[in-house]
Amino acid sequence: MKIETLPKEFEDARNVLETIESAGYQAYFVGGCVRDLLLKRNLHDIDIATSAYPEEIKKIFPKTVDTGIKHGTVTVLQDKNSYEITTFRTESGYQDYRRPDKVTFVRQLSDDLKRRDFTINALALDIHGQIIDLFNGINDLNQHVIRAVGNPNERFNEDALRMMRAVRFSSQLGFDIENETFLAIKNYAYLLNKISIERIRDEFLKLMQGRYAQKGLTQMIQTELARYCPGFDGHLIDMSTIASLIKNKKMNEIEIWTMVAYHFGFSEQDTNHFLREWKVSNKEIKLTECALKVVYAQQNYQITGDLLLNLNKESIIAGVHVAQISGFHYWSLDKWLLNYNDLPIHNKNELDITGTDIIQKLNIEPGPKIGKILDKTVGAVINKKVKNNFDLLLSYIKEHILNDLVD
Ligand code: ATP
Ligand code: MG
Fold it and tell me: What residues form the membrane-spanning segments (predicted)?
């Protein structure tokens, strides 16, 4: 198969390939960019594979960066663009079910294509627009099939992350997983235990953001990969519910986690524990916990000043969106934001009076009582019983709060 006119991204990179070839080596576009070119999808990076060794590439180009020299990758900088150029290589070992123990540079393109995960990812394109397709990848692209290169059992044993990649590509492309490849995933799903949670998380989030997320998530459940992800086992029915709701819905990361937490019936504490297991950052955990509160408030028709006070815009937007995807409406997003923006203060620190002020001006001993006074003062301000002004707050505390406090 020959491509007559290449898109601009490839044309821009053409002279990188020409330079390598005129130095006496081979060079090809490979992997995802060739797949996406044939599928007419947007390209996000152009990968080049070559028979030249990294040191040889560095001699040919004036500006290079050693991106992953051990694995054969050098980045070439040219005309404001950068290209990752990786030496043809084979891999062996894989004792940890993920990284190869040994990478060997080779001079044959065919050896390099053989180590790639799926036939649709094992295509190469030469400078003349000729596609090199040693594993019937074009046929699988046309049939919308994800099929392992070689023996799927061996391939997933070498690198268990490939199983998550299979369901992720299924979600992004809407492809089916070929039967033997599917069965091999089912056989070896348990090997996911060997993979770092960060890698699984990246694939899971990409899956949930895929255009065909409903399909990808269903495959993740059916292959049993879901059972080997932290906190998912025991919630497979909830996951099917999620799959049934997310067709054509675009979610960001906070929304994805909120969707999961809500449909798993998680409390704030459960969510915290769950997201820690997934090694989600503290900032994102906080945002998800807040978004979950919004979902529950929408569901229970209960929105109070106290609830709003502890929120933030990002979580409100996420929570309202997740509630909408899950099929219930109460307040519109506009109404949430209007009420949120209308709060005189958005957290305790914005109060015009501090604990020290209260101790000094009202002659109260430091201790837990101060915290209680501050909380009540915040409550009074957001419920608009008093303005957030130092003198007014001081009188309000004297008149309304101190008397009510029980020691
Ligand atoms: P995208 O960048 O859109 O996520 P991609 O196919 O380009 O998809 P990358 O992770 O960028 O995926 O990898 C580039 C290429 O490297 C793949 O197309 C595939 O040929 C090969 N590859 C990546 N990861 C693996 C793996 N775990 N096992 C075998 N080959 C892999
Ligand atoms: Mg890529």
Answer: none
User: In the structure encoding, which two tokens stand for residue 194, read together?
Assistant: 């060997």
Binning the chain into helix, strand and coil, the percentages to the nearest 5 are: 55, 10, 35
The answer to whether 256 touches 293, Cβ cutoff 8 Å, is: no
Measured in Å, residue 45 CA sits from the centre of ligand 2 at 6
Nearest CA to ligand 1 atom 1: 32
Residue 364 pLDDT greater than 60, yes or no:
yes
Q: Phi and psi for 130 in degrees, rounded to 5?
A: -85, 130
Residue corresponding to tokens 């906080």: 286
Q: What is the pLDDT of residues 281-313, one digit of tens each?
A: 999 999 999 999 999 999 988 888 889 988 999
Cβ–Cβ < 8 Å for 137, 147: no
Ligand 1 site residues (CB inside 6 A) read 31-32, 47, 116-117, 121-122, 159, 161-162
Q: Model confidence over 194-253: pLDDT tens digits?
A: 999 999 999 999 999 999 999 999 999 999 999 999 999 999 999 999 999 999 999 999
- Residues composing the chain: 407
- CA gap 294, 305 in Å, rounded: 12
Rounded Cα gap, residues 178 and 167, in angstroms: 11
Please report where in the chains the tokens 């960001």 appear, as a residue.
252
Quote the tokens at residue 372. Answer: 């209680």
Per DSSP, the residues of 173-214 read H-PEEPHHHHHHHHHHGGGGGGS-HHHHHHHHHHHHTSTTHH
- Give the tokens for residue 173: 């492309």
Q: Which atom of ligand 1 is found nearest the CA of 36? A: 3
Query: By C-alpha distance, which of 400, 382, 399, 390 is closest to 357?
Result: 390
Instruction: Give the ligand whose atoms come closest to the C-alpha of residue 112.
Output: 1
- Beta-carbon contacts of 297 under 8 Å, excluding residues fewer than 6 positions away, are 303, 307, 319, 330
pLDDT at 24 over 80: yes
Full-model pTM: 0.92
The residue assigned the tokens 């209308």 is 342
Alpha-carbon distances, residue 110 vs 16, 68, 118, 122, 130 (angstroms):
21, 22, 14, 10, 15
Coil, strand, or helix at residue 87? Answer: strand
